[in-house]
Structures are given as C-alpha cells and as structure tokens.
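[job 0412] stage=fold_complex status=start
inputs:
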Amino acid sequence: MEHALLTVNRLKTYFYTEDGVVPAVDDVSFAIKKGEVVAIVGESGSGKSVTSLSVMRLIENPGKIAGGEILFEGRNLVDISLKKMRELRGNQLAMIFQEPLTSLNPVFTIGNQLAESIRLHQKKNKKEAIKIGIEMLEKVGIARANQVYDQYPHALSGGMQQRVMIAMALSCNPKLLIADEPTTALDVTIQAQILRLMKDLIEEFGTSILLITHDLGVVAEMADQVIVMYGGQVVEQADVFTLFKEPKHPYTKGLIDSTPKIHEWKEELNSIPGTVPGPFEFPEGCKFADRCPFVMDKCKAESPPVIEIGKGHVVRCWLHGEKGLKLNESKSFT
Amino acid sequence: MSQNPLLEVRGLKKSFDVTKGFLKKEKHYLYAVNDVSFTLKKGEVLGIVGESGCGKSTLGNLIVHLHEPTAGEILFEGISLLDLPAEQLRRRRADIQIIFQDPFSSLNPRKRVFDIIAEPLRTHLALSKAELKQDVLHLMELVGLNRSYLYRYPHEFSGGQRQRVGIARAIALRPKLIICDEPVSALDVSIQSQILNLLKKLQKELQLTYLFIAHGLPAVKHVSDRIAVMYLGKIVELTTKEKLFMNPMHPYTEGLLSAIPIPDPTERKEQRKLLEGDIPDPVNPPAGCKFHPRCPYKTEICSRIEPEFTEKEVGHFVACHHPLGKENKE
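[job 0412] stage=fold_complex status=done
writing structure:
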C-alpha cells in the first residue's frame, strides 16, 4: 500500500456566526497519494471550498478548525505554527483559485510576481529567478513568454491569467496543488486547454492535485478518486470509474443524471427536486432527506453513518444498511 | 414555411467607441455585433451560443432595445422596431421580455415578490387589486413558486427560486418573444435542469418564442429548435440542433463540441482535437475569416477573404471557406 501524501482525518471546520454554529465541514476524511488527482464535487454550500481552504489553513474568523487532523507527509497541519505553515504554502502546497484576476496583484508585472515566489522559496538570485520564471511561463504554454513576463495582469485574457497562476503555483515544484474551480470562469475551449495542461504537468512533475469543482464533466476527465460532498459531509467516495458506473448515493446519482450529456436527446432533463438548503435549514437526520426520492422514516430521524460497501467505496446513506449489505456487488473492483 | 416570421433581424450591427488616449487621434471601434441576420418563427426557440465577447448578449440587448443599433433592422411582426415612435415602442415592449443571467442583481432587493411580478402588469394593464393578486398568484403557480412566498423579499430565496421569480415577471404580460440571456449559467447543476425543464414547459404551454442565449452548447441543446453559433460578432453557423450536433460544418462548432468535458470517465479522449489559442482582441480582429488564426483547416484564402454566410445545405447556413463535410471528419 502506497503511503498517502495528504491524509485528512475527521476534519471539522465550523463557523461561529452570530446566528449559531455552521458546520461547514463536518467529519470529512480522505487521502491523496503521490501523483493522484482527487476531486471534491458538490454544489454551493457543500463545504468543498472550505475543505480545501482548511488544508491550506486559510480559514478566517469566525471560522475555525474545530477538530480532526490534516496529515501532510506525517506532519499535522492543524497543529503546526503559522510560520511553518507559511513555509509550506507556496513551497510544498500551492493553490490556484477560480478567478485568476483577483489572485494576481494588478500593480505588479507578471514577472515581478512570479519571481517573488521563486526568490522567496528557492533562495535564487534575481537573474536566476527571471530565468526560471520565463521557463515556467513557457512550460504552461504561453507564447512570447519573454514579453508576457513584463506585462501586467489586466493585459492578459482569462485563460492566460490562469496559465500564469498555474506557472506561479508550480514554480516551486509543490507536492500538492489545490485547484479550486480552476476552469469555472473560463470559456469551454479555454477550459479544455487548461485541463490538458494540468494533466501534462501532473505527468511531468508528479504533482498530486486536489481538484474542487461542481462540474462532473471535469471530474470524469481529470480525477482518479472522487469525493461527493453535500451539506458539509462526504456522502460518497470512490474511484472515478466506480463512481460514475455505480453511484450508490441518491445525491450522486441525481448529480450525474442532471449533468447534460451531449449525445442524449430527451424530452425532459433529469433534475434533483428542491434546492440546497441554507446553512441553518438542513434537516435533522440525513441532510439530503428532504430532496431524496428514496427517503424513509429512518432518514429523517437519524443521521446515517459512513459505511464501506466496496474497496475504497464509501457511502453515507441508510439505503445501504449499517454494514454495507451489497458487498457482493463490489466484484467489479479490481 | 410561408408563415411570416415573428422576428426578423437584418444586417444588425452595433459598435462601441473604445478610443483611448488624450488626443483621440485614432478612433477605435469594437464591433460587438457585426452584420447579423436571422429570422425567428412564432413558437420557435433559437439558441445563440458563443464564448465571452462574441456579442451574444449585446444581440439580445439590441432586440429588447437596451442598446441602439449602429446599423441594420429589427422587424417584429413585420414592423421595424427602430422606426417606431416612443409611445408605440413602449407598448410593443410588452410583447418582448427578457430573463437575465444573474438572479441576484436583476431583482430589486427592496421589493417583495408580489411587487416584482406585479410591476409589468401595473405598468401595462389597468387591473383591480384583487385581479392583480390573482394574476400574480397564478403566475407563481405556473413557475412553481409556493404561494406563501408572495410577500417575501428576494434575499430569502436561493438562486433557482429567484430565477423563477424573474421568469414569472417575464411571462406576466404573455409576451410573444422572450430573450433568455444565460438564464441558468449562474445556477447549481441540480437546479439548472429544473429551470431548463420549466422554460421548456412554459414555452409549450404558452406558445412562447425564445431567443435563448448561452455560452455553452449543453445548455441550449434541450430547449432549442435551431442553434446559431457566434464568434467575434458574427454568426458562423446556423441550423437545426440535430444537424449542429451530428454534422457540424464550421470548424469552430466542431471545436466547441469537442471541448465539452464528457461526464463519463470511460470516454476520456486523451488525444481529442482541441482548439489552439485564445479568442482574438475584438478591437483588432484578424483579417479575412475571423476564426482563421485558431482554425486547424485554414488555407491561404482564409486569411485574406472573409467567407460569406451562405446556405450550404438546406437549412444549414455556414460562413466558412472549407466547411466540414461528412467525408473529412473523423
């Protein structure tokens, strides 16, 4: 069994608001191996972004990591000092966000910002930093890297900005890249380019990726492992092939069914009834109960436990009993 | 098909002056919509698809008269909207409504649902209080909003519910044409299909005509009868949705289709054709065919002469020197 690079264990990130405590991330566990792409899928309010921000220790007041551990190469990130954390960020752990323009400083050139992180983390001199910076821009497929190096962020298109962000994130050769909706703000033809770029870079650098997205198409294209979140909890987790072939949680199934398929012609699209409840409006018991087509009395009364129904395939749903009744179905696992 | 079109757009252009600098020696224009023509029959849904900056939203705004066109004609039921005197135009507006993309900024936060939906009814019709309330409740039922929400404020609703309010407001006057400007792109996946189903249901029940604008093909596919693909202010391909998906003739349409990630990991296309490059700067568009710098099939002529938008097959319009046929596709 290969050792995990990152292990998140029963993570709880709560927001202590004036109106009450919001369990944005509630008992979430998963692991990422070296060179693996793990995707967290969910809709707004599912806790997927808060999970990724927790790993980076970027949770701000009134939010707090209330429990659990985040083990990165054996060290618990929840406990280490902010100084240590700052050393890890940008160096071992890097992050790219949905809106590249808000993550780049508008008053400094691309090169300036790129060289800053290289000099900060790799102890290179100015000349070397410039050289590495331009090389990185070329690696992420930017033509005329020399010129772009001296340009300001606003002069670049959204796709180019995201390439710059990726160049910046990878410039220190991090072990883990957290990509929070990296292509959501981009046009579809540019999205395809960025996804391919990320794939190529995984192969070249062996970087592990934690990919946060709402788009199951992107998940199917990129991920090895998939975590489906709803209301701050993991409702299902499996390898990507199993998840799409045999989704066990009604929410996962609903999400897959309501994703438009390009070669499917239907009178009516599948959808999940209702809407994602507000932070204080989740039902007692199973959080998905009031939107679930298979809801039973038990679901409304008691929160279902996480059970393993196949190798690496876990689901949080009463339909599958308490111990995982349908283990014989897991023969498709290799 | 001798039926008169409900909407006819002829040679529509809209340019914005983007001249910069103190002396303004050189004038620069951005042609957001550049010579667009199409017709829309009653009861038809035309999808308009294109990436950011292609002019699709400007086109929608021109038709509801939120922008004044630079050139061209917009005929609604055979009457040119641009020549109408103000009062008649105001009345015509009851027939053409718009649903906006962002349900958070398109609803007045200080108004209750009742007032938002009632506003067009108050403006255009003289109804008694009781009639007004009855109408609003009926509209809420049509769009699937619980009647207990009548006196709530927009902030109390989720994105999907707000979009339902926006739809109720748009259909309140039983318009003949509705411009749907990216009505689902701000919504969660599980909610998008709810709203698409609702829009399709209303279109059938109320015999509405839609101009349905979206940035991606998957969203327009469900509701549209025909689809127009726009690139840098121009329509590059226009045909029925079946033909567009099964037999795209413009290389850009092919690129758009192949860029859509498929929600099935067994169909990962490692080596699928991707469009190279970025969308060019619309202020300085390339000469000749505007798509040629990104086109995998370009030849010398493409960089010189702009292709005409012509009917290559029956009902299949393309602007391309080398339209894709069945033979030269994979």
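[job 0412] summary: Chain B touches chain A at residues 51-52, 158-161, 188-194, 196-197, 200, 215-219, 221-222, 245, 255-268, 274-276, 278-279 (CB under 8 Å).
[job 0412] exit 0
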